Amino acid sequence: MQVPGIKFIDHVAIAVRQGELEGQVKAYEMLGFNVVHREDVLGGDQVREVLLDMGGGPNLIQLLEPLSADSPVQKTIERNGGRGGFAHIAFRVENAQHAFDAMKALGFQLIDKAPRKGSRGTTVFFVHPKSRADFPFGFLIEVVEDPESK
Q: What is the pLDDT of residue 65?
């Protein structure tokens, strides 16, 4: 059995320390990336997000700056000794609910109780880094359904 509908890597998320987001955006722009979306994501996430693309392709870089000490991104930065860096990888799927149900049936440890609203109108859920005791990924995975791509 496979997880249905995985299409491609949606984005790679990078944690950025508070106060460093705009400098990071400028650095990516010097590499040729373009800002395609900005949003403050509140609720349990508590992050300021900037999405960048290169060449209009579907694969994005997501810069995440924590908005509070309770942000999971701030916790990632603390685990990294106060440094920013890799936060997670996100896979684009056709249907988040179908992917969620399949991953649950396959025994993956899902962080969210159900797919939920994400930034830019997406539906998302997260998969724990140690999701599979037999073969843990070792990093956080986000699964993203983008209604614009249907």
A: 97
